[in-house]
Hints:
By secondary structure, the chain is α+β, with helices and mostly antiparallel strands. 24% of the residues lie in helices and 36% in strands.
Amino acid sequence: MSTIITRIWHGTTAAHHAEAYLEYLQQSGLADYKRTPGNLGVQVLRRVEGDICHFWTVTRWESYASIRQFAGDDYTKARYYPDDANYLLSFEPDVLHCETFEY
């Protein structure tokens, strides 16, 4: 059995930016995820709570080495893009990595 590594990032926007941020995310981070060798897939979870919209990107990877190709040597840190400042309410510094077992 091979272990897949799941990387989970969380961010928040104003609820009125939810659609625009999702489009931007598709052009920036999601495109980079999909171009990185060793990426096995990406999902976006979105939840609006009042005036805030939560986003989670959930990516699956072959190995920590493949995650480093996307995120750099300190792969536990979130990767941000210049225009994120136009949407995100804060910049969470770290992401979550989990060993993932599929049955």
